[in-house]
Amino acid sequence: QVQLVESGGGLVQAGGSLKLSCAASGRIFSIHDIGWFRQTPGNQRELVALITSGGSTNYADSVKGRFTISRDNAKNTVYLQMNSLKPEDTAVYYCNADIWSTSSFRYLSYWGQGTQVAVSS
């Protein structure tokens, strides 16, 4: 079984920083693209940042220049460094990864459970 476990969320003041982690575990053969998403009550889940297997990154305009996505393939972990946080960054953050497990015949999409980020002013 493959699962993604997120950590690093919490309460922080505006202007502060947080670093989120998403660790994949289970019978993993390889991990392709990984994305961080966020969702607030009543709103659609939106893509915040994406990193491909080749290291290319993409960011939502609202976080560009403040957030950095990275990955450590040896640890099967992806990170989201969040700097200069704003109250509007408050949301539940989810990671999503395309993973080829040792029991799969192709890449499958997996979601983490989400971690709460709250930014106070």
The share of residues in helices is: under 10%
User: Major sheet, described briefly?
Assistant: 7 strands, mixed
| Fraction of residues in β-strands | over 45%
Please tell me how large the radius of gyration is. Answer: 14 Å
Low-confidence segments, ≥5 residues, pLDDT <50? none
**Could you give the distance between the termini?**
41 Å
H and E order: EEEEEEEEEEE
Q: What is the number of helical segments per DSSP (H or I, 4+ residues)?
A: 0
Principal-axis shape equals: elongated
Q: Average pLDDT, to the nearest integer?
A: 96
Number of strands: 11
Describe this structure in words.
The chain is mainly β and 121 residues long. Helices cover 0% and strands 59% of the residues. It has no helices and eleven strands. It has strands at 3-7, 10-13, 18-25, 28-39, 46-51, 57-59, 67-72, 77-82, 91-101, 108-111, 115-120. Strands 2, 4, 5, 6, 9, 10 and 11 form a seven-stranded mixed beta sheet that branches. A hairpin with a 6-residue loop joins strand 4 and strand 5 (46-51).
Give a brief rundown of this model.
With 121 residues, the chain is mostly beta strands. It has strands at residues 3-7, 10-13, 18-25, 28-39, 46-51, 57-59, 67-72, 77-82, 91-101, 108-111, 115-120. Strand 5 (46-51) and strand 6 form a beta hairpin.
List the helices and strands and how they pair.
Layout: E1 3-7, E2 10-13, E3 18-25, E4 28-39, E5 46-51, E6 57-59, E7 67-72, E8 77-82, E9 91-101, E10 108-111, E11 115-120
Parallel strand pairs: 2-11
Antiparallel strand pairs: 1-3, 3-8, 4-5, 4-9, 5-6, 7-8, 9-10, 9-11
